[in-house]
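User: Here's a structure from my thesis project, written as structure tokens. My advisor, Dr. K., wants to see whether a designed sequence matches the one we expressed. Can you design one independently, without my sequence as a hint?
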């Protein structure tokens, strides 16, 4: 679902069952807040009942920018 959400602006992979979103440094720097909201919305809509926390690595293509987003499991 995240791959569809970001389309051509980012690539979503799941190496070793870890979700990784890779996009341009410019996109990471300028739109980080919006990116976080998009990811959180998609996870909440597609997986409202979660038994585990979800960790998503967001980084740029060169690896200069990296951030891990944690979405808590449902209560």
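Assistant: Designed independently from the structure alone:
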């Amino acid at each position: 679902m995240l791959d569809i959400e970001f389309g051509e602006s980012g690539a979503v992979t799941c190496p070793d069952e870890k979700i990784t979103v890779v996009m341009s440094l410019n996109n990471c720097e300028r739109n980080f807040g919006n990116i976080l909201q998009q990811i959180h919305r998609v996870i909440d809509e597609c997986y409202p009942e979660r038994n585990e926390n979800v960790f998503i690595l967001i980084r740029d293509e060169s690896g200069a920018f990296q951030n891990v987003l944690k979405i808590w499991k449902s209560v």
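When you compare it with your expressed construct, this may help: The chain has one domain: 2-71.
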